[in-house]
Amino acid sequence: MPAQKSMRSIKVYAWEGYTGPGVLEEIAAFVTSVGVVWSLNEDVLFHLQMAIGEASANSWEHSYQKGKGRLRLEMERHRGVLEVRVIDWGKPFDLGETPAPRIGPDLDRVDLEGLGIFLMRKMVDEMTYRSDARSGNVLTLKKRLPVKRD
Predict the structure, then answer these.
(1) What are residue 70's phi and psi, to 5 degrees?
(2) With 10 labelled, which of 97, 99, 115, 137 sits at a CA distance of 20 to 30 A?
């Protein structure tokens, strides 16, 4: 069961560890366990797994230049929206300056730079980024939950 704390009656599930190539399985297990607690459907869970996994991999690769660094995930659910914060304390980046990937018919000439950000944007409904020395680099992902029909 993931760690949880109560903030103004909103439960926040948190995972904290260090970046590295082997940590993605641990993060996936955390996201899955929260998904089970929240009874998320397979599509929503898949989209979250993809977006959070990519954000965590980007933290390791870009923020910490493939070195070991502190990483924190926070997940909360309120009013039909899931909010995920991926937090690190490495080198910040400018989300607005990430180029769109160049994908064409010739797969040998595909430029993958920016593909991860592009995919994250497709998996969630909203994505924002802020950085400051005290609270770190915070990538916030929001996913609206489908309305349950009886």
Answers:
(1) -70, 140
(2) 137
Contacts of 72 (CB under 8 A, 6+ apart): 14, 15, 16, 85, 86, 87, 88, 136
Q: What is the Cα–Cα distance from 144 to 150, expressed in whole angstroms?
A: 19
Distance of CA 42 to the CA centre of its chain: 17
Cα 106 to Cα 74, 114, 115, distances in angstroms:
39, 18, 16
Q: Which amino acid, residue 132?
A: D
Length of the chain (residues): 150
- Residue 82 predicted with pLDDT over 80: yes
| Domains defined for the chain, CATH in brackets | 3-144 (3.30.565.10)
Q: What is the pTM of this model?
A: 0.84
- pLDDT (mean) for 62-86: 94
